[in-house]
UniProtKB/TrEMBL annotation:
SUPFAM superfamilies: P-loop containing nucleoside triphosphate hydrolases (SSF52540). Pfam families: AAA_30, UvrD_C_2. One of its GO terms (molecular function) is DNA helicase activity. Keywords: ATP-binding, Nucleotide-binding. The lineage of its organism: Bacteria, Pseudomonadati, Pseudomonadota, Alphaproteobacteria, Acetobacterales. It comes from the Bacteria. CDD domains: DEXSc_RecD-like, SF1_C_RecD. This is AAA family ATPase. Residues 23-173 form the AAA+ ATPase domain. InterPro entries: AAA+_ATPase, Coronavir_polyprotein_1ab, P-loop_NTPase, UvrD-like_helicase_C. Transmembrane segments: none annotated.
Length: 440
């Protein structure tokens, strides 16, 4: 087996990380696209194993963890950080929060490596600090990516003990995707730069700017390659409205028109909220995790809200589709999704009125909402949702993303950067502003 040759930058960072373990509870490793963060994580794990450490790789989402497992899974276990810390969704005064499981698993790792740390928000960071103050936690991330929703930047980037990778590794130096990502990243903080929107590809890999992107999309999403692996192609944009529109269009191509129900048996979907087990104790399908429709049929959701000393009990019924999801692990779990005409608004208003009188109603509301899933087709997703994932070939809706620049230029640049760093083989641009590209 050939020996991995590190850049001088990687060698320095490796030494800094190993030295930090003895003097600091946390260390931060940052690096932009193409600087070899994954290679360095592999070397860190090997070095720590030689020191006798018990290492676990983690990420904030199931998809990011799956990507991590494909790259470093032979060296150490790969789990979500929520799984390692026994965290699950809960409710507090009407807000969804993270809570520790009633029977948490022991945390056995000496070293916890958290990849894609730009996705670690303040709440998760507090749990990490509270639960593993005596373990060494290495945060790894790219500061040019999107911050957690509602926050300016991940608090992980404030860690003082830090190393930074600057040198683009030789294998990535001539990659058109890395070149595009670098141009986008270097423009952050200034005006939008479209100089990277030029076709640059060889033997099916690189950056493409087709004249008929919709025809390319139709071929891609109806191809045998996509049927065999839904990560072969993906469409990325800014808004949920655009996601819904693209998913509707692609579903018509795939199924030859509209379908009687929103999904068909065998279709791959993405869970937009967690799907819990019937006892509500365990997450069966996590937010943004993919699953397959095993069964779907019309039904009615009946739910009873308990009486308290301050508010009466009552029962509601909603028209739903009763769905059975099959996870990637092969487990099956039921979930209800709303049918058109289901009036959630009136229920929400009543619950909020009652919660003003009885705080326990917030928990009752959470239990009720936990019974209702939200699923979307697998073809298109927002860039926020895609962060942490990788796909073979990605359609990037530059037109939709650039609309974000009207109110937040930096976020538009971050969206473009994250989109450009999702594909492993090719990026296909759509919706380009006039004069922004060289097509080929």
């Amino acid at each position: 087996m050939s020996r991995t040759v590190l850049t001088a930058c990687q060698e320095r960072a490796l030494a800094e990380i190993l030295a930090a373990r003895g003097v600091s509870a946390t260390h931060l490793l940052t690096g932009y696209a193409g600087t070899g963060k994954t290679t360095l994580m592999q070397q860190v794990a090997r070095a720590l194993h030689r020191q006798g450490a018990n290492v676990v790789f983690t990420a904030a989402t199931h998809k990011a963890t799956a990507v991590l497992k494909a790259r470093v899974g032979k060296l150490a276990p790969c789990r979500t950080i929520h799984n390692v810390l026994s965290l699950q969704p809960g409710a507090q005064d009407g807000r969804e929060v993270l809570q520790r499981a009633d029977r948490p698993e022991p945390i056995t790792a000496d070293v916890i490596i958290i990849d894609e740390c730009s996705m670690v928000g303040s709440e998760l960071m507090r749990w990490v600090r509270d639960l593993v103050p005596d373990r060494f936690v290495l945060f790894v991330g790219d500061p040019a990516q999107l911050p957690p929703v509602g926050e300016a930047i991940s608090p992980s980037f404030a860690i003082r003990s830090a190393s930074h990778l600057e040198t683009v590794v030789r294998q990535a130096a001539d990659n058109p995707l890395v070149a595009a990502a670098t141009a986008i990243r270097e423009s952050q903080g200034g005006p939008l730069d479209w100089s990277w929107c030029r076709a640059s590809h060889h033997e099916g890999a690189g950056l493409f700017v087709p004249r008929t992107p919709e025809a390319w999309m139709q071929r891609a999403f109806t191809s045998d390659a996509f049927k065999a692996d839904s990560d072969a192609f993906r469409y990325l944009c800014w808004t949920n409205a655009r996601v819904d529109a693209v998913n509707r269009t692609v579903r018509r191509w795939v199924h030859g028109g509209e379908t009687p129900m929103p999904f068909v048996v065998g279709e791959r979907v993405i869970a937009r909220v967690p799907v819990m087990d019937v006892e509500g104790r365990r997450v069966m399908v996590a937010t943004n995790e993919e699953a397959e429709i095993a069964d779907i049929r019309p039904g009615v959701l009946r739910h009873a809200f308990p009486a308290t000393s301050k508010v009466p009990g009552w029962t509601t019924e909603l028209p739903v589709y009763d769905v059975v999801l099959r996870t990637l692990a092969g487990d099956e779990t039921p979930v209800a999704i709303l049918r058109p005409g289901a009036d959630m608004g009136a229920i929400e208003q009543r619950l909020k009125r009652e919660a003003a009188l009885e705080r326990a109603r917030w928990q009752h509301r959470f239990v009720f909402r936990r019974n209702i899933g939200r699923l979307q087709a697998v073809y298109a997703m927002t860039v926020h949702t895609a962060q942490g994932s990788t796909f073979g070939r990605v359609f990037v809706d530059v037109g939709d993303i650039s609309r974000r620049a009207a109110t937040n230029v930096l976020e538009a640049q971050q969206l473009l950067y994250v989109a450009a760093t999702r594909p492993t083989t090719a990026m296909i641009l759509t919706g380009l502003p006039t004069g922004a590209s060289g097509r080929k």
